[in-house]
Design goal:
The complex is a heterodimer of chains A (270) and B (384). Chain A has 270 residues and is an alpha/beta fold. Chain A is 39% helix and 10% strand. In chain B, the strands form 4 sheets. Chain B has an 8-stranded mixed beta sheet, with helices on both faces. In chain B, strands 7-6-14-13 form a 4-stranded antiparallel beta sheet, with no helix packed on it. In chain B, strands 4-5 form a two-stranded antiparallel ribbon. Classes of the chains: A alpha/beta (270), B alpha+beta (384). At the A-B interface, helix 2, helix 6, helix 7, helix 8 and helix 9 of A face strand 5, strand 6, helix 10 and strand 13 of B.
Chain lengths: 270, 384
């Protein structure tokens, strides 16, 4: 705007159980980084700056899932000092790859990994942020797409609704002219049940979609997995495809549990 | 239309070069991503020489032929709509200035395409999109300019896929009109038919001969082979009322159990024309692009109105697609929206077959009528 000076919202970035990849996506916005710094005041972003200002914050980006009692408490504090909370990435929105422990005994893991497990305080599960606090906006992906991240920040700064479609990856493949890898090559692909956002990268490199952006709106996982099983894909391939970065997203979780039941039934028949 | 000419096999390259010399960007079939797609081509060597496609519901495979035919395949995942109605179009831009918003419309020359290898069902699809984009109260300028500039080289099918049903829709396999040139591939070359003055202008510059009786015979036999190979049928008798009078039939629930609502069928369909228009601002909010993108009735966001989606279930979205394509399209545009190309069948990841769904609906309606079950209004499907 040329005639008035806008008040820049104060931005904070908090990390929970995660790999940092999503917040790095923000630093990865090389061409747009100056515009971002112009539009928001970066008040708390330890990965980017050692200058850490106290809250409250206008916009808080939260990366990572809740896996420890300490984090379960800390996220409440983050909510208290944040006006708008946007969770970023598969860990924050679905529990991440670490939610595989939801299917296991976490104490077994502790004993395997740590020499002195008694010093480790951890929860039995990895859960998304929205299971613990009210979240204003969720941004999917492993990692998030930086264009989508900029879209959300731009929308919040300018007081408009972010444009983030919830359709399947297939629509993006078709707009790009990418030929369906499942139909033309028989590669099991999660695209038909996966949320748009990545720009349909994998199928354009002859790979099936890994479901990094989690379930699309009203996805029909049962029909897709039935189709793959009937056309010869084995459960050993399909189960890890669903139990991945978004394993604990409800639609994928139910689909993978159902597959496991199918595997047991088939095993019993043998 | 004058009697067909004969174009020798080696002269096909000459046709492509002549079109290019006249300033056309030649687009045609080529092998890419394990399929025969439409893309820019510069010589006959770019064509899928010696390749064919094997299709069935939910499955497409390339296969080598035992000859070196140029057009020995059927139709692939792409259709010509990607050139006439592009997937993403910049409609307008706006910039915020001291004097207010300044709007601008991109002023670019439309590309002049020569489409090589347009099948009869695809000619029918282009005719249908002409009615949608050019013959209603609102004319689409992007489509209009691209369509007016396009040169069409049709190709008669000499074989059919298991998913083809153009004979049920009266759209093929013979190309009868609406082309500039039409080819029928025979042993040593092509029969060449001229369909317009522009086509005549190009044909006159190719080294053609008058086709012999034997060559004409070969052409007839080749085209008949396509007709004979078509196995799939769709019974369109009373199809509008069949669908529109049975919007609560339990068969809709059955198909919704299989449908992924993934949008594939609509985007491979050569007649589906839905798009959405969105304003795309930059970070400052001072520059906004207005973009039109392909969209789909299977996208839950597409029916979003007044705070919620109007079609909030897979069942309601499948029903919207099928009833529009086969029934209300007739009310809206005076024809079916289906040309029988079979793309929606092949490219559905779970192999839902439109022709079988029509048959299943007929059967379900009959069963319901015989069982004399009355569906009370209280049992009606709730959409949201």
């Amino acid at each position: 705007m040329t005639d008035t000076v806008r008040k820049r919202p104060r931005l904070a970035v908090f990390k929970f159980a995660s790999c940092d990849g999503c917040q790095l996506s923000l630093l990865d916005c090389e061409d747009e980084l100056l515009a971002v710094a112009d539009a928001v005041q970066i008040a708390y972003f330890p990965e980017a700056s050692s200058r850490m200002e106290p809250g409250p914050y206008d916009v808080t980006l939260v990366e990572g899932s809740i896996t420890t009692p300490h984090d379960a408490h800390r996220i409440q504090e983050v909510r208290r000092i944040s006006r708008t909370i946007v969770t970023i990435g598969a860990c924050a929105t679905a529990g991440g790859i670490q939610s595989l422990k939801n299917w296991a005994n976490h104490e077994d893991y502790l004993r395997c990994v740590y020499a002195r497990p008694e010093f480790i305080s951890t929860l039995a599960t990895s859960t998304p942020i929205a299971d613990h606090i009210k979240v204003d906006f969720e941004l999917r992906g492993c990692p998030v797409n930086r264009h989508q991240l900029l879209e959300v920040l731009g929308a919040l700064v300018n007081g408009r609704r972010p444009r983030l479609p919830s359709h399947s990856v297939c629509l993006d493949c078709k707009r790009k002219g990418t030929v369906c890898v499942e139909v033309a090559q028989g590669i099991p692909c999660l695209g038909p049940v996966t949320h748009s956002g990545c720009g349909a990268i994998c199928p354009s490199y002859d790979r099936g979609c890994y479901g990094c952006f989690g379930p699309a709106a009203q996805c029909n996982c049962e029909s897709l997995t039935n189709q793959y099983l009937d056309s010869g894909t084995n459960i050993e391939t399909l189960l890890p495809l669903l139990r991945n970065f978004n394993a604990a997203a409800p639609e994928f979780r139910e689909a993978s549990n159902r597959l496991e039941e199918t595997a047991q039934e088939r095993g019993n028949k043998r | 239309m004058q009697s067909p000419l004969f174009l020798a096999r080696v002269q096909l390259d000459h046709l492509i070069r002549t079109l290019a010399e006249d300033g056309y960007q030649v687009v045609g079939p080529t092998v890419d991503q394990e399929a025969i797609v439409y893309d820019e081509i510069s010589s006959a060597a770019d064509l899928p020489v010696g390749w064919t496609d094997i299709q069935e519901p939910g499955k497409y495979r390339l296969q080598r032929r035992d000859d070196e035919a140029y057009f020995g395949y059927v139709v692939g995942p792409h259709s010509w709509k990607k050139y006439l109605f592009p997937p993403v179009t910049l409609v307008a831009s706006a910039d915020r200035t001291a004097a207010g918003w300044q709007l601008s419309t991109p002023e670019t020359e439309p590309p002049r395409y020569a489409f090589l290898g347009v099948r009869a069902c695809e000619l029918a699809a282009i005719r249908i999109q002409d009615r949608v984009f050019l013959e209603g109260p609102f004319i689409d300028p992007t489509y209009q300019r691209r369509r007016a500039a396009a040169f069409v080289v049709a190709v008669n099918c000499t074989q059919a896929a298991a998913t083809c049903f153009c004979t049920s829709m009266n759209t093929g396999p013979r190309c009868t009109a609406e082309f500039d040139l039409a080819l029928t591939e025979i042993a040593d070359g092509f029969l060449l038919e001229v369909g317009s003055n522009a086509g005549q202008g190009i044909a006159a510059r190719l080294g053609t001969q008058r086709a012999t009786a034997e060559q004409l015979e070969q052409g007839c036999a080749a085209r008949q082979q396509a007709v004979d190979q078509i196995r799939k049928q769709m019974d369109t008798t009373g199809i509008r009322d069949l669908l529109m009078n049975n919007l609560r039939d339990p068969q809709w629930e059955e198909v919704a159990k299989r449908c992924l609502s993934c949008t594939n069928c609509t985007l491979v369909c050569p007649t589906c024309f839905c798009s959405s228009v969105a304003e795309v601002p930059d970070m400052t909010g001072d520059h906004v692009d207005r973009e039109r993108r392909w969209d789909s009735c299977f996208n839950i966001d597409f029916s979003y109105m007044n705070g919620s989606p109007a079609r909030n279930s897979i069942q309601s979205r499948y029903r919207q697609w099928m009833t529009h394509k086969l029934a209300t399209w007739q009310d809206q545009f005076g024809s079916s929206g289906c040309v029988g190309c079979g793309r929606c069948i092949t490219w559905c990841p779970v192999g839902i077959d439109l022709t079988e769904e029509v048959a299943a609906m007929r059967k379900s309606v009959e069963t319901m009528a015989n069982s004399s079950t009355v569906v009370s209004p209280g049992q009606e499907e709730r959409e949201s």
